[in-house]
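Q: Hi! First time doing this. I have a protein sequence and I read that you can turn it into a structure. Is that right? Here it is:
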Amino acid sequence: MTTFKRYFDLKDRLAKNNFFLFGPRGTGKSFWIKKTLAGVRLFDLLDSDVYDRLARRPRQLCEEIPPGEDCAVIDEIQKIPRLLDEVHRLIEERGIRFLLTGSSARKLRRGGANMLGGRAWETSFYPLTWAEIPEFDLLKYVNRGGLPKVYLSRFPEEDLRAYTRLYINEEVKAEALTRNIENFVRFLDVLALSNGREINYHDLASDAGVPPRTIENYISVIKATLMGFELVPFLATKTRKAITRSKFYFFDIGVVNHITKRTPVSAGNPAFGDAFEHFIAMETRAFLGLTGKDAPLQFWRTKNGFEVDLIIGRELAVEVKAAKQVTERHLKGLKALKEEGLVRNYALVSLDPVTRDLAPGIKAYFWQDFLRLLWKGLLLP
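A: Yes, that's right. Below is the predicted 3D structure, encoded as C-alpha cells:
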C-alpha cells in the first residue's frame, strides 16, 4: 500500500508545545497521527465508546492518562468542546502536552469553548501536496485532487461522491450549521461553478434562489468547516485601481470536479486551465501554512482587466498559465503590477519546460521547477 510522508512534523511540534491541528476531513490527520505518534495515548472521539465515556464524564480524561505520561492526542475535539476545560487543567497541573485535532474550529469558538488562553498554537493540515507525493502525476492530481483515499482509489468518483455526502450529513446537517439542507446543496453546486472567481453575492443568490445574506452565511459555513478559503484582493496599487471583491477556492480540486461534474480534466481544455491555477494556489497556500510563513496570500485585478493570480506579501507575484510555450504576451498583468513597484519578485508559472528570464525582472518557471524551489524555501525569505 502506498503511504505518503507528510510535510508536517507532529513529533517536533508536540515536543515544543500544545497545539490545535485543524484540517478538513479526509486529509489524513488521523492516519498521520497513528503512524508518527504510535506511542502517544490517543482519544479518538469518532469512536463511539470513547465519545460516550468522555462526554458523560469529562474528568475521566485525567484518570485515563497515567502519571508519567507527558503527551496525549484528542482527535476531533470539536465533538466534546467542554473537554477543553480538562485539557486546560491537565496542562496547568501536570504539564501534559496535547495535540488537539478537528475539522471545524467554528463549533469551538461559537460555543465559547476554552481555547486554552494562548497555551496552544494553532496550525492547519492540508490535502496532499506536490512535495508529499512520490512520482507526482499532474493530470491525475487535477482530476482526483489531494485527498489520500481518493488519490489512491480504484473508484475515485464514487469516493468523492461519498465524501461530499459525508460532509453534508456530518459537518453541516448534524452540526445544525444551516436549517435548509436543500438550499445549501443547491448553493454548493453554484459556488463550485464559481471556484477561483470573484465572489458576487447577488449573482450567487440569484443562481441559488436564496437571499444574498444567506449566501454570506453559507460561505462562512464553508470556510469554518475548512472546505474552502478566500483570497482577498491586493489593494495597495495607486496607478491602477483594484477591484475589492475576494476570490473563493474550494480546498480540493477533486471535490470541485465532482460537484461540477467536469471530469475528466484533460490537457488543453478550459477545465484544465482552471484546475492548474487552483493547484498552484493550493500548493502556495499549503506551503505558507505548513512552514509558518507570516505572509498574506492575495490576488490582484484592476477594473480595466489587469490581473495577477497570486501575490505573497510584498515578496512574490505569480501568474499561472496552462500554456506549453509562454512568451511576453502572457506577462500583461505582471508587467502592469511591476510598474507599481510594490512587489520584489515576479514569476510566470506554466507548462513550458524551459525555466528562464522572460522579461526584465520577470522569470518564467516550469511548474515543477517553481514548486521545487518553493518547497525548498528558495523563493521566499
